[in-house]
Amino acid sequence: MKRDHSIFVNIIVGIIGGILGGWILQLFGIGTGSGWFVTLITAVVGACLLLWIVGLVTKPKGRV
């Protein structure tokens, strides 16, 4: 997802996104297991979802 954020913001969004992804999967009753690959996919999906939400909230005026 193309965003103009600093490395610090990207790290924070990645961490929060990983937590968000795990929380959402638990809401649907899906366990992430103990494998690193499933945990990585969960974190990536959560981070992308969070970036999408941040993009909706911080959308500059005049951009469609």
UniProtKB/TrEMBL annotation:
It is a multi-pass membrane protein. The lineage of its organism: Bacteria, Bacillati, Actinomycetota, Actinomycetes, Mycobacteriales. Belongs to the UPF0410 family. This is GlsB/YeaQ/YmgE family stress response membrane protein. GO terms for cellular component: plasma membrane. The keyword Acetylation does not apply. The chain crosses the membrane at residues 7-30, 36-58. The keyword Cell membrane applies. Pfam families: Transgly_assoc (PF04226). It is found in: Cell membrane. Keywords: Cell membrane, Membrane, Transmembrane, Transmembrane helix. InterPro entries: Transgly_assoc (IPR007341).
